[in-house]
């Protein structure tokens, strides 16, 4: 069973013409997060900009993350694609480099039928001997994974859970009802809904804000598990200051700039076409960092 705070780590880039991968920054950030107490590192999530990396870069970066983590916590890796063939190829290569679990986003740009979604996930699951986590993020794919599809996929031996980033608590409760009836787990992917999700029985969060605020997110997880509701509410509400700042730019430009301004790691910019933050936005990021005593 997955528990605690899992960080979907940003992918650091150099400020060179190619915006090449910055491995020293990735190692520094990985060590910072594990020292802060996160329960897992997740490469190639949305904040990890998987959508602008080549397959070769995805394998190379994830291989380095596996090396940097060195079995201290589980390593999760994103292996979804628009085509089943590409997702299988990526999943099998991820398995070879030693990740502990795969997260698989549903195909984006198109809107597959229920039958097609089931086939997509079942074929990927059959190609590897690794736990598979479904990834529901309708704001990026254009649709929710239907409850009927998730219920059917939960019967597969190595499809073990779903990350729900919909922010829809009614949908989350329906997913959680599947988890209660099967060997299956829901992981919350909406940082503002962590407390709500734990109330419904969820016990793990894949939280992008934990890149910058791992101690806060870990403390929130502990407070919720220990039924310290007042403390949990205080911590949950505190995250809203960062979440408001993140809206000042295209994902993940503000988060990456905040990590740099806080001197946590020189993670560089988001890849183009996403542009760097302006001096005016930097001033607002610094104000946010001062709220958390990070500047």
Q: For the residues shown, what is the average pLDDT?
A: 97
Name the helix and strand elements from N-terminus to C-terminus, one letter apiece: EHEHEHEHEHHEHEHEHHHH
* Outline type: globular
Per DSSP, the total helix count is 12
Class inferred from helices and paired strands: alpha/beta
* CATH class placement: Alpha Beta
Total domain units: 1
Strand content: 5-15%
Q: According to CATH, what is the topology?
A: TIM Barrel
So, CATH architecture? Alpha-Beta Barrel
Question: Which stretches of 5+ consecutive residues score pLDDT under 50?
Answer: none
DSSP, total strands: 8
Sheet with most strands: strand arrangement: 7-6-5-4-3-2-1-8
Report on the structure:
With 295 residues, the protein is of the alpha/beta class. It has a single domain (4-228), classed as Aldolase class I (TIM Barrel). It has helices at 23-36, 55-69, 84-97, 114-127, 138-141, 147-153, 169-181, 194-199, 214-225, 229-246, 253-261, 279-291; strands spanning 4-8, 40-43, 75-78, 101-105, 132-136, 159-164, 185-188, 204-206. It has an eight-stranded parallel sheet. It is globular and about 50 Å long.
């Amino acid at each position: 069973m997955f528990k605690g705070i899992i960080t979907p780590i940003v992918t650091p880039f150099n400020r060179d013409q190619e915006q090449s991968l910055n491995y020293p920054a990735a190692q520094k950030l990985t060590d910072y997060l594990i020292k802060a107490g996160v329960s897992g590192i997740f490469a190639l999530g949305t904040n990890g900009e998987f959508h602008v990396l080549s397959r070769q870069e995805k394998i190379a970066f994830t291989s380095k993350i596996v090396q940097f983590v060195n079995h201290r916590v589980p390593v999760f890796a994103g292996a979804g694609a628009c085509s089943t063939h590409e997702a299988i190829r990526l999943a099998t290569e991820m398995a070879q480099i030693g990740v502990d679990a795969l997260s698989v986003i549903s195909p984006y740009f198109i809107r597959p039928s229920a039958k097609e979604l089931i086939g997509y996930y079942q074929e990927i699951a059959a190609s590897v001997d690794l736990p598979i986590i479904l990834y529901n993020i309708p704001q990026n794919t254009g649709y929710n994974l239907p409850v009927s599809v998730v219920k059917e996929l939960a019967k597969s031996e190595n499809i073990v859970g779903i990350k729900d980033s919909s922010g829809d608590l009614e949908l989350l409760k329906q997913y959680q009802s599947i988890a209660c009836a099967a060997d299956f787990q829901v992981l919350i992917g909406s940082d503002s809904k962590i407390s709500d999700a734990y109330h419904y029985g969820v016990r793990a969060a894949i939280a992008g804000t934990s890149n910058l605020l791992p101690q806060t997110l870990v403390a929130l997880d502990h407070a919720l598990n220990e039924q310290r509701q007042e403390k949990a509410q205080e911590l949950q509400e505190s995250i809203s200051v960062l979440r408001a700042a993140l809206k000042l730019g295209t994902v993940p430009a503000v988060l990456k700039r905040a990590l740099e301004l806080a001197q946590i790691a020189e993670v560089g910019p988001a890849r183009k076409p996403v542009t760097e933050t302006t001096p005016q936005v930097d001033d607002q990021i610094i104000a946010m960092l001062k709220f958390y005593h990070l500047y």
